[in-house]
Amino acid sequence: MTKFSASAIVLTAAYVAAQTLSDIASLKIGVVAGLAVDMGTFIYPITFTLRDLVHKATGKRNAQVLILTAGGINLFMAGYLTVTALVPGDPDWGLQSEFAAVLAPVWRIVIASILAEVISELIDTEIYEWFVTRITRRFQWVRVLFSNSVSIPVDNAVFAVGAFAFSLPWHVVGQIFVMNLIVKYLITLVSLPMIYIVPGSEG
Question: How far is 53 from 50, CA to CA, in rounded Å?
């Protein structure tokens, strides 16, 4: 039976938590530095590096399983929140309409978000594995930067177009794309050193 370290379990839990929190926060479009941005942007980017850490600690196959499992969990969460919003509220508690307004998901955003996550993270997995097996096992920070540099723009394009095209003006969609790109790259750069704290079978 395969045994994983406590750090691998923590990383897996952190990945799923970050995915879920970012999907909830993405239901709000905020304005930061004068640009439109979905508020999940400030949590979601760490998942790319967390995915790399899980890949390093547990291998490619387990990283792929984690990506698909997180997508399934987020889909279930969206469905459950929808059902919860439809259940009549206790009149003594109130807040029924507020709950529905805030947490009943906009399904187009939910589906676009999950598709973006799964597609980009699976691409990230393949690029990371290719870099490690075909380029070099050295310079671990480079493998994270390289894989993220491919997967982040893909994630942005799928999410921004899938969630907001034809429902928001194209310049707003463009702002969301640009702001997401900036934030995700900044968080990638900050999180690069994390790759060195996790032991892995591939070096």
Answer: 5
